Amino acid sequence: MSIEAELRAEFDRWERNEKVFFAVLPYVLLSICTLITLVLPFWDVSLNLPLVLGLTLVIALWVGWFHAHPRWQESGPLTGLYYVGLIVLGASVVTLAPWYGIFTFIGYVHAFLFLKGRWRYAGVAATAVIQAASSTGGLSGATVNEWLVLSLVIIVLAGAFFRFAELDDRRNHRQKRALAELHEANVRLEAALAENAGLHAQLLVQAREAGVQDERQRMAREIHDTLAQGLAGILTQLQAAEQTAGRAEVWRRHVDNAKNLARDSLTEARRTVHAVQPEVLAEARLPEAISDVTRRWSQVHRIDAVLTTTGEPRPMHADVEVTLLRAAQEALANVAKHARASRVGLTLSYMEDLVTLDVRDDGVGFEPGTRRADGAGGFGLTGMRQRVQRLAGRLEIESEPGGGTAISATVPAIPAGAGR
User: Fold this and answer.
1) What's the Rg (C-alpha) of the chain?
2) Strands 405-412 and 304-310
3) How high does pLDDT run on average in the chain?
C-alpha cells in the first residue's frame, strides 16, 4: 500500500472513531450526572429529585431524537432549533443541580459539529455562561458580579480554544482534499503510463513488422532472381536433354548444365536460409553464439577477443538475436580489416527493455564521418546501422585516430514469441 493510501485510510479510520465517540459522549456525560443525582439526595434533602430526573429524561430524548434524524443536521433552521432547545434544557437542569455543568460541556461539541459561522461562537458563549453558573453553584450560589466575571473568562478561553480547533479542522479538511486529489492524479498517471507503455510496445512491434516486411520483400526479389530462375533453367536443360537423347554429346552437355544450375541454386538456397536463421543461433543461445564467433575469430586472426555478458540472459526474438549476432560479426570483421588491434572486448548487456552489444578495440581508430582513402567508407558500418534501425534501435560509434574504436548497438528487448 502506498503512503498516500495509508494516509487516506488513517483519516477515514480517525473520522469513524471520532463520529462514534461524539455520538456516545452526550449519554456518557448525562449518565455521570444522573448517577450523582441519585447519590446526592442522601446528603442534600432539598434537591427536587423527580424534577431533575424528569429534565434528564427530556434531555436524553431531545438529543436522541435529533441524532435519529440525520437530515435535520443538514438544515440550518432545524439545527439551530435543536441547539437552542439543548441550551435551554441545560440551563434549566443546572439551575436545579449545578453538577449538570458536566453535561453542558456537550454544548461546545455540538456547536462545533452542527452550527456554522458566527453562530458557532454564539453557542460557545451560551455554553460558557451556563458552565460559569454551574461552577459557582448555580445562579443562587454566587453574586451576579462573580457569575459575570467567570462567564467572561470562560468565554474568552473557550473561544480561543474553539478557534484553534476550527483552524485545525480546516487544515485536516484541506489535507484530506489534497490526498483525494493526489489519489486521483496518481490514478490518472498510472492510466497514462499504462497507455504509454502500450503505445510504446505497439510502436516497437510496428517497427519490427516494418523491418520484417522489408526483409521479406528483399528476400522475395532475391529468390525470384536466383532460385526461381535457376529452377526454370534446370527444367529447360532437362527438357532439352530429353529431346536430344539420341545425341550423346549434346545430351551430356545439357545434363552438365542442369547439374551446374542445381549446384548454384543449392548454394543460393543455403545462403538464403543462413540469412534467415544463422546456423550458429539454431544450435545455441545468443551469448554462446557470439562467444563461439568471437573464439573462432580470435583463433583465425590471432587477436585477443573476449565476450562479457551482463544481466540475465533470456531468449529474444529471432530478429533481435540475428541483428546482434550480425553486428558482432561485422564489428569483428572491421577490426580484422582495418583496426590493426591487439585486443578486442565485447560486452552483451541484458536490461529490462533493451539489449546492448558493445565492441571496443585498441586499434588505430578513425575519424567518424570521413571516408577512408582505400574506399572502405566508415569501416563498412552502413549495413550494421540499417539492421539496427529496422528494429527501432540505435548504433553509436566512438573513435579517434590512434584511440581505438567503440561500437554500441542497442535494440529493444523483444522477447521470443512476441508478435505471434
Assistant:
1) 46
2) unpaired
3) 77
Name the residue type at position 242: E
- Tell me how far apart the terminal alpha carbons of the chain are, to the nearest angstrom: 36
Among candidate residues 104, 160, 89, the one with its CA nearest the CA of residue 134: 104
- Averaged pLDDT for residues 375-382: 53
| Whether the Cβ atoms of residue 419 and residue 207 lie closer than 8 Å to each other | no
pTM exceeding 0.70: no
- How far, in Å, CA of 158 to CA of 166, rounded? 12
Please tell me the distance from the alpha carbon of residue 71 to that of residue 87, in angstroms, as a whole number.
21
Whole-number Å distance between alpha carbons of 287 and 309: 7
E strand intervals along 15-135: none
Distance CA 23, CA 29 (A): 11
The half-sphere exposure of 368 on its side-chain side, counting CA atoms within 13 A, is 13
Give the integer Cα–Cα distance in Å for 367 and 395. Answer: 16
Q: Find the Cα–Cα–Cα–Cα dihedral 299, 304, 305, 306, rounded to 10°.
A: 110
pLDDT at residue 44 greater than cutoff 70: no
Averaging pLDDT over each range in 8-17, 31-40, 270-279, 348-357, which range is the top one? 348-357
State the Cα–Cα distance between residues 370 and 401, nearest whole angstrom. Answer: 12
Model confidence pLDDT, tens digit, residues 391-418? 889 999 999 898 899 999 999 999 887 6
